[in-house]
Amino acid sequence: MGKLQTILYVEDDLHVRTTAKLVLEVIGKYDVCECASGEEALQLAREIAPDLVLLDVMMPELDGIQLLHALRRLPHMADVPALFVTARTSAYDIERYMEAGAIGIIPKPLVPLRLTDQLRTAWEQRPRMALPQTPGELAA
């Protein structure tokens, strides 16, 4: 997994979603595929291969944690890094998000001018899968 380019962003609040998408596209130069619900995200995730998933926690029907579990069942989404965007930031909540497989959180309320840097920092600090060694590296 190399450069961060495509983001699947799931947020049920239209104002928050629109603002974040605008900031991420204009300032961050990312391609943002937005969804208003977990069901919509599951449909779209079958058609795209995002580099990162940005998830609201509190949504009707499927909450962010349930959605992340469902996304992980799609083979091409199993290892895609995910960040939760939430106002629920207690130690207990953060532990739940990390156990669900998130690489971190971005707290709400979002600060538009900080969002791109927060996302970039989380991306750069994410745990990485060890790359297989090439035969030349094994012989060295």
From TrEMBL:
Domain (Response regulatory): residue spans on this chain: 6-123
InterPro entries: Bact_response_regulator, CheY-like_superfamily, Sig_transdc_resp-reg_receiver
Top-level lineage group: Bacteria
Residues annotated as transmembrane: none
Coiled-coil intervals: none
Record-listed 4-aspartylphosphate modification sites: D56
A Pfam family this chain is assigned to: Response_reg
Keyword annotations: Phosphoprotein
GO annotation terms (biological process): phosphorelay signal transduction system
PROSITE patterns attached to this UniProt entry: RESPONSE_REGULATORY (PS50110)
Name by which UniProt lists this protein: Response regulator
Lineage start: Bacteria, Pseudomonadati, Pseudomonadota, Betaproteobacteria, Burkholderiales
